[in-house]
Amino acid sequence: MTTRRTVWGSMAAIVAILVAVHLLGLPLRGAFQRVVSPLGISANQLAQSIEARMYHGSYPDTKSPDTQAELNRLRSRQLELEQLRAENRQLKQEITFARGETRQTVTTQVINYNPDQTRDVIRINAGSEQGVAAQMPVVAQSALVGRVVRVTATTAQVELVTDVAFRALGKVESGPEGIIKGGIGGGLTLQQLPQDPGIEAGDLVVTSGLDGVYPRGILVGSVRSVLNTPGEVLSTAQITPAVAYRDLRMVTVIQTP
Questions:
Q1: Dihedral angle at the C-alpha atoms of 97, 99, 102, 104, nearest 10 degrees?
Q2: Model-level pTM greater than 0.90?
Q3: SS3 label, residue 231
């Protein structure tokens, strides 16, 4: 303990001398240099050595490879836990929906989104072995996701409502009926509505059930705006989808007869 105090006291004294040398100018610097020159170092080298000793002796190197690797591992673990929490929330929602559904259902995971980059589709972790077949409706969070278009023994491809090929009969919940269509870039519209249909932004859009594919009353989204073209007989409503399809982790397939 005494030795350590002596060392730090000496270092403090040297620092004080260096400060004085800096403040009093070149004559004193030259004298100080003559004092330390027998040691084989310059005054600047001595100052740098003291600074390095004081700094690195007080603060550990937080940028070492081992420390950085541990930080990266912890960040990855945190992201993994956040994804698991999101999946758990969605699973609870799908179980709640399935319990209230009179038809047979299959709740399953989303494997990936838009695998071929040309269609707005997802692939799910259930196929013919689990009772999934083409044309079956798919929902998530009590809202329409799309329909099954391709099936293997253990997986299936689902065409989202925002896909350019998607079509379904729908209606504004308290208004006219029309055709729900997907569009380029994830667009979604309710077309062939009468001119001035009397609907407003925020009105809910649901399936009508008249196409024989999608059960009646499944939520699709809400009206964002209505396009009325002068001289045209029909109008189109822009729809905001009810769910963020790219964030889906779990979905439910409704097994139609």
A1: 90
A2: no
A3: coil
